[in-house]
What does this fold into?
Amino acid sequence: MSTDLSVTVADGVALLEMCRPPANYFDEALIGAIVDNALRLDEDPACRVIVLASEGKHFCAGADFGGGDFARDRVATSQRLYRRAAKLFDVRTPMIAAVQGAAIGGGLGLACAADFRVAEAGSWFAANFALLGFHQGFGLSVTLPELMGRQAAADLLLTGRRITGDQALRLGLADRLAEPGQLRETSMAYAAEIAAAAPLAVRAIRATLRQGLADRVRHVLEHELAEQARLWDTRDSAEGIAASLERRTAVFRGE
It folds into this structure.
């Protein structure tokens, strides 16, 4: 088992906790561990609901473009990572993402792969891809409009702006809002509500509601990957990523 992912099961609820604080950046290994454990839990009768959480200040800040495999070969690394991540949509067990701090970029994609999201008022969500000069990934082209509606999703994707937890709740991106300091407890209580229902019925209802979602995500993911590869080869993308790493405002020239 990955040391970057803790897995515990109790009272019908599995807790998958990312352990890369403070930002919980992901890579193929961490995404693979989440996918493999979630699929394994599908076969565990002791697990009826999964809560995806994380240690530290932020839920997940996506991929770390400043180092690792992304710095060496961004295109090939993203292809491997996101194709592996698409298997999250094959998981048959309901999943709740407990979002503290930021769910940004690919971290937002990870949160949107879950069935539900619990946030605090101080949590924030951002699809900041346009501010980095490239296309969104992780199937967000499908999941974000599904959750928020096309117009609200377009607003977030084209501006890259942040929204807070209470704004996310109003827009449908978050499903429940926890009191300050009560995120984990609220998420686990939500999971317990689902776990108390008839498990065969829960899985059947969920499968009906999500019918075709995995296929749609896989289809759009290939388009996302192609657009990312194309745009990563532009000066604007180089500027956007550099500006983010240097914590300054990017100056884009359409090149």
In short: The longest strand covers residues 5-10.
